Amino acid sequence: MSDTTTETTMEVNAEARRILAVSISKLYASRSQRGGLRLHRSLLLSLVMRSARDIYHSSVPPAEPMDTSPEEPAELDLESGPQPDETSAELSLTARGGAHREEEGEPAEDKENQSPTRCSRKRRGKTSVAPHFLPSKRARLEPGEERHAALPPPPPVSCRIGPAESLTSLSLNRVIPAC
Amino acid sequence: ADIISTVEFNHTGELLATGDKGGRVVIFQQEIESMPQFRSEYNVYSTFQSHEPEFDYLKSLEIEEKINKIRWLPQKNAAQFLLSTNDKTIKLWKISERDRRPEGYNLKEEDGRYKDPNTITSLRVPVLIPMDLMVEASPRRVFANAHTYHINSISVNSDNETYLSADDLRINLWHLEITDRSFNIVDIKPANMEELTEVITAAEFHPHQCNTFVYSSSKGTIRLCDMRISALCDKHSKLFEEPEDPSNRSFFSEIISSISDVKFSHNGRYMMTRDYLSVKIWDLNMENRPVETYQVHEHLRSKLCSLYENDCIFDKFECCWNGNDSVVMTGSYNNFFRMFDRGQRRDVTLEASRENIKPMQVLKPRKVCVGGKRKKDEISVDSLDFNKKILHTAWHPQDNIIAVATTNNLYIFQDKVN
């Protein structure tokens, strides 16, 4: 009997993961949509991802490194802001990072202060363990280059209008409701 | 670019406007054949480019030219006026007819050069002579730069002077004559965007009470606001919400409860909302549940996961009332549309398609079968074509004539006469 329960849990778990993967690729695709990010659609996607994530985390966790590794890159990826080559990392963050984001405060101010080596180590680990979660391969950066990546020219929106208006520059962390 | 994105009859039903993804508006005019059958035909009356694609340099964003909504103004003089909107800008268009032109000026030579005024010795008043009918559309007002998010609704007030426009988080009130100013009347943007939990999905003014409007949300609630209470209507006067059925909970419960359209009945006593699977009729005096609920395509409830994957779950279906509020209509997939007769408690599924149907032929009711045994003429859920969706429908304000938009085509159906 415990086998069937485990099986069902595994099924639900697999289903949740699949939905999470589909949602992330949808979020990713919506970046290139004409007309910019649609707030309503992004909100609905984030709600589905949150449900899927909750189910995924609440089911008996199999011994997978990916369960623990996202916690730290969650903090780091947030700070580096929206970048085309960091999208996939950020998107997997947004699937999980709801609760953690609460403590982040203003993302923009810490952009410059991230340790690049810490960044790159975590990212590599996460990606190599669970590539199926991420929509596509993204360019890997060497440790030296990470520093450059951590100091991007800020997108025009966050400079002038302020964080509240930066929906259009893929600050999806704002779209996702706090748990 | 030919994809129809909105359909709207004017107040008499004589004109039918459609907007498309390419920013064009096409207006059809009704012509009634009195013999032999009082049949109506709608022929193209005017076509014009309402909106062009734009680029927001500040946000590095393209602004789509797709027409999201068209609303007609009640007619006040010989010309017709309509409001059309894309994601960011609303425009007031004047559509006027010209069937005469002046002739007989003696100011120009044959080749068009102006004559030397000294050579003109007589005053000749030009005469208006008939010409082929020309329909001209000219933009009279442009209401721009008032919306940060994407406009989803516009609604003309019964006072005929003001109208509202709604985006995901805000509703603005405009005066039709004033383009450089609008009043914000609803603002649901949270101080911290991370706390965003719902957005505005549709808004409409009450058909008779110029102080009342409603707006629906992505959470399945409708708020009724009274503009007399305060300038900012963030606090609702009434909140219409039906408690969720816990047995129907799924990953996608939130998405399917998002309201895609809200429409007042013509008599102003009811309002109808459309969510992904159903149509609900609310009595304005009862907030805790709808008075009627109609399932549009319940057979899709078990398919929500695939509909999520193919994006169909995000489709925004509209709904409409007939002239006397006895029947409501909405679209579905496979080019099916559904009508619910409230009084007779009957519903019918019809198909808008050129296959198997000739003009003037009576439409055959369709049926979707869910179980294993498919009867003849039924279609199984798995054979439904989800690319063929009817999102926009409109009902003539007085007669039983309906306009149904499939992806690229507009179908006009009317009651069988005799």
Automatic annotation (TrEMBL), chain B:
GO BP annotations listed: blood vessel lumenization
Gene Ontology CC terms, in alphabetical order: protein phosphatase type 2A complex
Single GO molecular function: protein phosphatase regulator activity
Entry superkingdom: Eukaryota
Alphabetized UniProt keyword annotations: Repeat, WD repeat
Disulfide bond keyword on record: no
Entries under InterPro entries matching the protein: PP2A_PR55, PP2A_PR55_CS, WD40/YVTN_repeat-like_dom_sf, WD40_repeat_dom_sf, WD40_rpt
Protein transport keyword on record: no
SUPFAM superfamilies, A to Z: WD40 repeat-like
SMART domains linked: WD40
PANTHER family cross-referenced by the UniProt entry: PROTEIN PHOSPHATASE PP2A REGULATORY SUBUNIT B
Family: Belongs to the phosphatase 2A regulatory subunit B family.
Assembly description: PP2A consists of a common heterodimeric core enzyme, composed of a 36 kDa catalytic subunit (subunit C) and a 65 kDa constant regulatory subunit (PR65 or subunit A), that associates with a variety of regulatory subunits.
Name of the protein in question: Serine/threonine-protein phosphatase 2A 55 kDa regulatory subunit B
Source species: Hippocampus comes (Tiger tail seahorse)
Lineage of producing organism: Eukaryota, Metazoa, Chordata, Craniata, Vertebrata
